[in-house]
Amino acid sequence: MVKVISLSNEAYEKLKEKKIDEESFSGVVLRLVDKKKPLLSELAGALKERKVEWGNIKKSIYENRKKMRLKEAKFG
Fold this sequence. Notes:
54% of the residues lie in helices and 0% in strands. It is mostly helical. It has a domain of 29 residues. The radius of gyration is 22 Å and the shape is elongated.
C-alpha cells in the first residue's frame, strides 16, 4: 500500500541529502527511523568534541597493542 505525504521544501532537501546511491525515499525513511546500525560515514568525527575520551581510548589501544606484540621466534 502506498501513502502520499507532504514535506516542506527544507524537509525534502534534507531527506534527499540522506539518500545513498539509487535508494528510494521509502528506503531512506526506513533506514533513518529504524536506525540500529549507523553508517560508518555517520560515525566519522563522533569523538571530535570529546578530546578527553578519545585520548583515553587511544592510550588504551596503544597499551593493548604493546601487550599483544609477538615475540621474535628463534629457530635452529
